[in-house]
Amino acid sequence: MNQSPPLPDAEHYQPVSTERIAFVASDTDEAQKARLELSHRYGNVPAADADVIVALGGDGLMLQTLHRFMGSGKPIYGMNRGSVGFLMNEYRDNDLKERLAKADTTTIRPLEMTATDEDGNNHKALAINEVSLLRQTSQAARLRISVDGRVRLEELICDGIIVATPAGSTAYNLSAHGPILPITAQLLALTPISAFRPRRWRGALLPNWARVDIEILDAAKRPVSASADHTEIRRVTHVTVRESSDTQGVIMFDSDHGWDERILTEMFRY
């Protein structure tokens, strides 16, 4: 029997205290310079003592910071000092505390990936954006797809497949022609990468409480790797993906250009 759907996990909360700020930055000169300037102006407490973490860099740093503080309850507010900034707010140095006090705060739940490799070892990792499976050689991957224990696709021949969260739907998922999901949608996007057979299969939208099992067929001849954001496992034979029920991250956006608005803008751009 299928479980009843849970309540939405992504929701907006009242502003948090912003008296104690911890700054983290990428290794670029621009980000490090911003960290020094902001630390001098607002102070910089250890992350363990902070009310809020301010990340200075690009989307890569933001993902790393969200992973680092996952489950801590500390909100992460990013300012763009990198090349890509979809997850970041505009950089300004003169009104940070006012922006933090007015920012929208949203909780996000990552995906849990359990990947079994060819030696039978199980590997676990969390993904904020997506779990992706990719062929490792010139041979296309052969995958069997099950949802909640029922086989839905006996064989998918492809370059790979993506299970994306709403937060990650505008990242790799969008590049693979997957759908953009509103941040509050209780959905996951299951998107094939260069599907060869069935050629016209474009993927599926699944409830966010669904369990996705991906079995790699002919794994010895057609090896496949699995990645949860930045964590990669090589030569997997089976991968299970489901939304975490007990881990969450917290992200902040300026109230005049929040995540909902960013995603709506992306929807009408493509």
**Global outline:** elongated
Tally of individual helices: 5
Secondary-structure-derived class = alpha+beta
The end-to-end distance, rounded to whole angstroms, is 39 Å
The largest pleated sheet is described as: 6 strands, mixed
Which stretches of 5+ consecutive residues score pLDDT under 50? Answer: 1-13
Estimate the helix proportion, in percent.
10-25%
Q: What would you call the quaternary organization?
A: single chain
Strand content: 35-45%
Please tell me the overall pLDDT.
Answer: 90
Q: What is the H-and-E element order? A: EEHEHEHEEEEEEEHEEEEEEEH
Query: Total number of β-strand segments?
Result: 18
Q: In which order are the strands of the major sheet placed? A: 1-5-18-4-3-2
> What Rg, in angstroms, do the CA atoms define?
20 Å
Describe the structure.
The protein has 270 residues and is an alpha+beta fold. Helices cover 16% and strands 38% of the residues. It contains five helices and 18 strands. It has helices at residues 29-42, 59-68, 96-102, 172-175, 259-267; strands at residues 12-13, 21-25, 52-57, 75-80, 104-108, 111-117, 122-127, 130-135, 141-147, 150-158, 160-164, 187-193, 204-207, 212-217, 224-228, 231-233, 236-243, 249-253. The radius of gyration is 20 Å and the shape is elongated. The model is unreliable at 1-13 (pLDDT under 50).
Secondary structure topology:
Layout: E1 12-13, E2 21-25, H1 29-42, E3 52-57, H2 59-68, E4 75-80, H3 96-102, E5 104-108, E6 111-117, E7 122-127, E8 130-135, E9 141-147, E10 150-158, E11 160-164, H4 172-175, E12 187-193, E13 204-207, E14 212-217, E15 224-228, E16 231-233, E17 236-243, E18 249-253, H5 259-267
Parallel strand pairs: 2-3, 3-4, 4-18
Antiparallel strand pairs: 1-5, 5-18, 6-7, 6-17, 8-11, 8-15, 9-10, 9-14, 11-12, 12-13, 14-17, 15-16
